[in-house]
Amino acid sequence: MTFERKNLGQLGEDEAEQKLIELGYKIKERNYRNIIGEIDIIAQDKDILCFVEVKTKSGSGYGSPEEMVDQRKQRKIIKTAQLYISENKLEDINWRIDVVAVDKENEELRVIKNAVEGQKKLGI
Q1: In 48, 73, 103, 121, which residue has its Cα 20 to 30 A from 40's Cα atom?
Q2: How do residues 85-105 score in pLDDT, each as one tens digit?
């Protein structure tokens, strides 16, 4: 990953974190990693634990930022979140996966709650 892309991603995560705080989320952790993958932000939204994927784009090529969270990426986020839940003995909590799309070209930031549905039913 180039320095520019990494820097853009970091700026997007910073903006996403600020927006989530404004919306009342309580940030628990950033850039959580385990053997499966990484979760950009883990936060509490009232009684729901949220695993947040942040996608930042500076141009319009290849679609919108949220379109970058394809099925392969969704499966990886689900598996990473499930391992986090297991490691922290949180099996009885309510949880969801949100996506924050940071669109630099149009100067927009979109929070998509429950962007990956059915994560508990997939069994993966």
Answers
A1: 121
A2: 999 999 899 999 999 999 988
